Amino acid sequence: MSELTIKVEVAYATPHKQKIVALDVEKGLTIKECIERSHIHHIFPEIDIAQAKVGIFSRPAKLSDEVHDHDRIEIYRPLIADPKEMRKLRAQRAKAEGRADKITGGRAKSK
What is the residue-wise DSSP string for 48-99? Predict the structure, then answer.
């Protein structure tokens, strides 16, 4: 490997399948360019590179950000449910079932 190339990884996962593609690329490439060169979108056709949320080692990043040596680019799947709404629904269900205190939302006292 010359001093003009760096090593990066592109990662994507579904509940049933995961893939990490290792690449040697030129310095100065963007996240988007590395994803395109990895051809991971051929393995997972549901990936829309233009709309994808991405990060480097779990930190949010932009497709236009430059990659550095040994970065792991992660492509995130869209959320199927709003986490705040789901928590709210679980709390309401717990209150209705008597598993949570109706006022504070904490655990119900056993009698």
Answer: -TTT-EEEETTEEE-TTSBP-TTEEEEEEPPPSS-HHHHHHHHHHHHHHTTS
- Strand-by-strand arrangement of the 5-13 sheet: 18-26, 5-13, 71-76, 53-56, 59-61
Task: Say which residues have a Cβ less than 8 Å from residue 41's Cβ, sequence separation at least 6.
Answer: 35, 47, 49
Question: Domain check: are 10 and 31 in the same one?
Answer: yes
Count of structural domains, the chain: 2
Domain coverage including residue 110:
79-111
pTM, full prediction: 0.71
Summarised one tens digit per residue, pLDDT across range 38-53 is 999 999 999 999 988 9
Nearest to 37, CA basis, from 26, 51, 45: 26
Same domain, 63 and 47: yes
Residues 47 and 63 in one domain: yes
